[in-house]
Amino acid sequence: MPSEYPGWTRYLRSVCKETRINLDKINGLMAVGRYEEAAQVLFDDMGEASFNEHLRITFCRKRDVKGAINYIPMIFKSGVITTNFDSLLEEVYAGQNLKFEEVMVGNSASEFPRLSATGKPFLLKLHGHANKQRDRVLTYVEYESAYAEKSILRNLVSHAFFGKSMLFIGCSLSSDRTLRLMAEYVQEFGHENLPQHYAFVSLRENEDRFARREQLVAANIFPIWYENTDHDEAIEALLMALVDGDIQI
Prior knowledge:
Layout: H1 8-16, H2 23-31, H3 35-46, H4 48-59, H5 72-75, E1 79-82, H6 88-95, E2 102-105, H7 112-116, E3 122-125, H8 140-146, H9 152-158, E4 167-168, H10 177-189, E5 197-203, H11 209-217, E6 221-227, H12 231-244
Parallel strand pairs: 1-3, 2-3, 4-5, 5-6
């Protein structure tokens, strides 16, 4: 977002302006975490061609790389996984002479376990690119297909995600498919038998921090809390602390 790409709430509201759908309906769905359904409602009203073009124009537009993302290549030299549709990670890694040797898309990443074991720089775009609908995961129908039983994406989340510890940055980590699937895997195999993950998580006003922690720990994700006063500044400070060795995970 520091590079001026919209977050999902803002983006879906902007799409809504191009449809006949009442914004209150979209806000209502998002308020209860039903982003997939909100995107599907907009997709169905707008039509496939217009929806895809709106997404492409928004997230394929060239932007200056700003903010905390610039610190990521300093810490993570090999594997990066994203659900974002833009190309900022490709740009920032190439700009620091760490160009990804492999860029994989979730629905086509059956070789991910083998490639990730090589230690070479790779990027897994879990939900695809903004300019390719075939491998994209955004609407409810696309999620249903991508996370179907025995699908490549489902296998990636339930197995490859637990190959090593991960740090989640800039993720809402609310009740989404990836988090639920991770929790199912932990429930099956047990916390003590799987790598621990960590996440930078904001302390939101009036939020039940203990319930939030329990939700994350169910997926073996342990929160590193920060005050929700200046999100970008806080993330940068935490990443700088990782670079300097003041935080170890």
